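Bench notes, afternoon.
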Amino acid sequence: MEPKKCRESRVVRTSRVFPNDVNNHNTLFGGRLMSDVDQVASISAARHSRKECVTASTDSVDFLHPIRPSDSVCFESFVTWTGSSSMEVFVKIIAENLKTGDRKIAATAFLTFVALDDNRRPAPVPGVIPVTNEEKKLNETAPMRAQKRKERKKDSKELAAYLTTDKLVP
């Protein structure tokens, strides 16, 4: 399976911030941003693997600057690194003030997707070829994030062993 350049999985989506998209602080609702992040990241994963993909984890969403109704919000995503069937997808969220043209990184996110075969089992995915400095930096630092991801999953499984599924009766 031939590796693919990061740009082959790149997705760019820009939209406005409308009144029903904001919270009580008059900034973009975090849940709305997270839904949009998952949508664009899932397209990047599918473009890279050309297979059905499922979200395995949202590793992080870091909110760096508020996004206001006077802004547009641009989501850029691409696959930065792959395992045998998993793909790390980076999403960069850029807020642009539509009156001044000022742009800033409003948030960043890392998600992991798994490609599936026709039997819904994990399927092999191509490797990644980073080209730009941004892609190279994200690819170089991916193994460290992958290790943290494994540790976090192990911790989550250990915690789950102590959690109950019983219905609480008032």
